[in-house]
Amino acid sequence: AFLDQIDAVEPAVHAFLAVDRDLALRRAGEVDAQIAAGERLSPLAGVPVAVKDLLCYQGLPTTAASRILEGWMSPYDATVVRRLQAGGLVILGKTNLDEFASGSSTESSGYGPTHNPWDLERIPGGSGGGSAAALAACEAPLAIGTDTGGSIRQPAAMTGTVGVKPTYGGVSRFGIIAMASSLDQCGPCARNAADAAALHQVIAGYDPQDSTSLDRPVPPVRQAAERADVTGMRIGVVRELGGEGYAPGVEARFGEAVAQLEAAGAEVIEVSCPRFEQALATYYLIMPSELSSNLARYDAMRYGLRVGDDGQHSVEQVMRLSRGQGFGAEVKRRIILGTYALSAGYYDAYYGSAQKMRTLIARDFAAAFDRVDALVSPVAPTTAFKLGEKVDDPLAMYMGDLCTIPSNLAGIAAGSFPCGVSPDDGLPVGFQVMAPALGDDQVYRVGAALER
Ligand code: GLN
């Protein structure tokens, strides 16, 4: 049924970069046989899942939505992919994203944008717009995303779906194409909190192949989503993430959701995190620095696109031609920014200062979590904007990441849950819940309570 829905809506939505119908059906048949033989897989055995095309999967090409990796087949599977398969989930295909996860609208994909199923003229958010749109268009019941500065949560908000960025280290990054390694985290996307929690449970947990993986028990996310009870919980509304610059319809729905949690028994207080004002500037130094370093491996020698390899060009020329053609404008902008920030003589002023500010932002969180169990805010200042509206204005695009970035910088858990549609335009609004590191269950607890 999901494959049929993909056939029906893909021409309009373009959520997927690759789908292999036969492979998916064959896998489904194998899982059926395993279940019939009494094998214990996972509670999600047999459920289809869409996977962001940033994860290595041997079954389909892995491109990171970049022309530089067009047609590349990974020789191995990401740990998350292995866990999905061991759990009996059936991978439907690879979903679209901003090139190397760099963007907030999926418009920087090298293979064309994804359209928001709520309004095909609008962006589905980014970078994980493909996974979110696939859920909203009922092309898949579950999806995998990655979140470096909001790429799971902001698309969830724009499409009225659920997305959770687990605690940094909670889900293995092994086999996930690196964007900014100290910020990247893989997580679940779904249409409700319980489904997301079930998927979280399947993919999370220690992996010795990821040196930043946490060797700690997975937080009790499924129980929390089932319990969905916020009685006695202390919830902090972040003063700095609201007010001027936020669409009235977003503020209205957010306020109603907070009132709903209060009516359900939570104690709501206002909390100030003054350093969040610097989070955007901090992120847009640290992320490009790490990205420029990670993307240096696309040197046209080891894998991917190779242009000018005709005996007439030097190694440097081949590299320059290949990177020049293979990378898109946004990725190039970030490589240049990051290379500059890391260069001798500037390193201390830019990267070094940003790292210090990152520590102060983490301290703001720590101080807030002394007073409350969870923090809440809108996910984004606006609802989904029109395709093309911000492509020529990177700063306006970056501003949309205001609310999601602090939790990546601090490595804490955060999720996006639908809280109705904006009275301004009838488009979905996302409610963000942030909890301390390894408090992922608290994120689901609040998110699930909103669904009641
Ligand atoms: N929108 C943010 C950016 O452009 C976040 C991307 C992400 O989380 N991968 O960097």
Structural summary, described in words:
- With 452 residues, the chain is α/β, with parallel strands linked by helices.
- The protein has one domain (2-278, 355-451): Amidase signature (AS) enzymes, CATH 3.90.1300.10.
- Helices cover 39% and strands 14% of the residues.
- The chain has 15 helices and eleven strands.
- The protein has helices at 2-13, 21-36, 79-86, 129-136, 153-159, 193-203, 221-227, 248-263, 279-294, 315-326, 329-342, 348-371, 394-399, 405-410, 440-451; strands at 16-19, 48-52, 90-95, 142-147, 162-165, 185-190, 234-238, 267-271, 374-378, 413-421, 428-435.
- An eleven-stranded mixed β-sheet has the order 1-3-2-4-6-5-10-11-9-7-8, with helices on both faces.
- Strand 2 (48-52), helix 3 (79-86) and strand 3 form a beta-alpha-beta unit.
- Helix 4 (129-136) runs parallel beside helix 5, helix 6 packs antiparallel against helix 7 (221-227) and helix 7 runs parallel beside helix 15.
- Glutamine (GLN) binds at residues 101-104, 127, 147-151, 179, 287, 401.
- The site of glutamine has 13 residues, from loops.
